[in-house]
Amino acid sequence: MMTLLLVWILNAVALLIVAYILPGITVASFGSALIAALVLGLLNTLVMPVLILLTLPITVVTLGLFLIVLNALVFWFAGSILKGFHADGFWWAVLGAIVYSIVSGLLSGLLAA
Predict the structure, then answer these.
(1) At a CB cut-off of 8 Å and minimum separation 6, what does 90 contact?
(2) Rounded to two decimals, what is the model's pTM?
(3) Which helix (H) or strand (E) holds 47?
(4) How many other C-beta atoms can be found within 10 angstroms of the C-beta atom of residue 82?
(5) How far apart are CA 49 and CA 43, in angstroms?
(6) Which tens digit of pLDDT belongs to each residue from 21-57?
(7) Which residues does 84 contact at the CB level (< 8 Å), separation at least 6?
(8) Which residues are within 8 A (CB) of 73 and not within 5 positions of it... i.e. 6 or more apart?
(9) What is the rounded distance in angstroms from the CA atom of residue 24 to the CA atom of residue 112?
């Protein structure tokens, strides 16, 4: 349970780092980052497997590159439904999703060490 809370906080910090690095991604506060990290985690857990299954043919044809588009769409959707978190457009969502994945992975890697 404690590890889950720590991962959630680290994902919120990763989201703040993404907002600091990319001018097209805005996060209003740490509380907004916590809510956005929770929503992104829920969307990635509940919605992404369904989207991956539905878009499997195009994902196979593009050799998996369409998964970047799916991640960006989920990131952009989370930014559109939350008040304190916003992505300015699709391409900012693509960059934001990529940077968020990298930073979140690096921060989560600190837990394993």
Answers:
(1) 72, 76
(2) 0.92
(3) none
(4) 17
(5) 9
(6) 999 999 999 999 999 999 999 999 999 999 999 999 9
(7) 27, 28, 29, 31, 32, 33, 35, 36
(8) 51, 93
(9) 31
Judged against a pLDDT cut of 80, whether residue 4 lies above it is answered with yes
**What confidence tier does 113 reach under pLDDT thresholds 50, 70, 90?**
low
* Cβ-defined contacts of 23-28 (< 8 Å, 24+): 24/87, 24/88, 24/89, 24/91, 24/92, 24/95, 24/96, 25/79, 25/86, 25/87, 25/88, 25/92, 25/95, 25/96, 26/85, 26/86, 26/88, 27/84, 27/85, 28/83, 28/84, 28/85
Token pair for residue 110?
């600190």
pLDDT in tens, 47-90: 999 999 999 999 999 999 999 999 999 999 999 999 999 999 99
